[in-house]
Specification:
The complex is a heterodimer of chains A (about 110) and B (about 110).
Chain A lengths: L8 E5 L4 E6 L7 E8 L6 E6 L4 E2 L4 E4 L5 E6 L8 E9 L12 E6 L1
Parallel strand pairs in A: 1-9
Antiparallel strand pairs in A: 2-7, 3-4, 3-8, 5-6, 6-7, 8-9
Chain B lengths: L4 E3 L2 E4 L5 E6 L6 E8 L5 E7 L2 E4 L8 E4 L6 E5 L8 E8 L7 E2 L3 E5 L1
Parallel strand pairs in B: 2-11
Antiparallel strand pairs in B: 1-3, 3-8, 4-5, 4-9, 5-6, 7-8, 9-10, 9-11
The chains are: A mainly beta (about 110), B mainly beta (about 110).
Chain lengths: ~110, ~110
């Protein structure tokens, strides 16, 4: 699985958009970008994933650059409950493979 | 629909003792995964069941760890004998084969004294 690089931490104001970057310069053509998050004292939670097109669901949007070497997770209106560690994971999708977690980005949403 | 459940939520044991963790996946999910986070480290994969069969156990740290999934429903992870470095949070996740999303349980916090 391709290695990812994320900033260790970032703050965000409540009600504003949170933009979380992820670099994955060695991504292969058949690898997807997945985002999970872990809220304190809970298990990781799936957010969104994509291959090359931008994706949106009820939780977030995923923007993948044209060369696929980086992506951005967007939380459109951050709330205090979005405070968590966010993990960007790149792997071959739809194969049931294990998830390889890195250090993630610790996001603190402030009032 | 109930999510992935894990029991116990916390366990404190002494070095050398045995502990068994249990995971109940979401009903109908044939894939079951175990992960753990030890102190200060990243979440690491342990193993993957498809129904009752071990699909991938490459992450199991050593032979003190034994995972089972008899009948392809719930799974247990036994640590025998437990060592200090086994302390951490053990997560279970399940997935239905028709999708790629893994759903995680709340974890079991294991403390070995």
């Amino acid at each position: 699985d391709a290695k990812t690089t994320q900033p260790p931490s970032m703050d965000c104001a409540e009600g504003r958009a949170a933009n979380l970057p992820c670099n994955h310069s060695t991504i292969s053509g058949n690898e997807y970008v997945y985002w999970y998050r872990q809220i304190h004292s809970q298990g990781p939670q799936y957010i969104i994933h994509g291959l090359k097109n931008n994706e949106t669901n009820e939780m977030a949007s995923l923007i993948i650059t044209e060369d696929r070497k980086s992506s951005t997770l967007i939380l459109p209106h951050a709330t205090l409950r979005d405070t968590a560690v966010y993990y960007c994971i790149v792997r071959v999708g739809a194969a049931g493979n294990k998830l390889t977690f890195g250090g993630g980005t610790r996001v603190l949403v402030k009032p | 629909e109930a999510g992935v459940t894990q029991f116990p939520s916390h366990s404190v044991i002494e070095k050398g003792q045995t502990v068994t963790l249990r995971c109940d996946p979401i009903s109908g999910h044939d894939n079951l995964y175990w992960y753990r986070r030890v102190m200060g480290k990243e979440i690491k994969f342990l193993l993957h069941f498809v129904k009752e069969s071990k699909q991938d156990e490459s992450g199991m740290p050593n032979n003190r760890f034994l995972a089972e999934r008899t009948g392809g429903t719930y799974s247990t992870l036994k640590v025998q004998p437990a060592e200090l470095e086994d302390s951490g949070v053990y997560f279970c996740a399940s997935r239905i084969s028709s999708t790629d999303t893994q759903y995680f349980g709340p974890g079991t916090r294991l403390t070995v004294l």
